[in-house]
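--- STAGE predict ---
source: upstream dedup step, 1 unique chain passed
mode: sequence only
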Amino acid sequence: QVQLVESGGGLVQTGGSLRLSCAASVRSFTTYAMAWFRQAPGKEREFVAAISWTGDFTRYADSVKGRFTISRDNAQKTMSMQMNSLKPEDTAVYYCGAGETIDTVSTAPGYWGQGTQVTVSS
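--- STAGE serialize ---
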């Protein structure tokens, strides 16, 4: 059983930064690829970023490339995403996900967190 808890969301002005974190309750964190998804009001959930078991490979949605950076700390069983140059269109509930591989977690994570709200004001 895997439990994921997001934190770090909040209200920030356009151009500001936030750092989201996801804490995992799992026996072997290194066996899971991790990802971030988001869902804006009135829109479907969309992929944001993913990271492989080892952290050697990452993947980003085109909309966040160059602005967001995903990372993980396997010793602490946490996964984070630094978000810079935030835009109003980044406003959404951000969800942490875990899966078998970077490919599968980018499409259909097996486990989800409860979400954390990010609001970017103009």
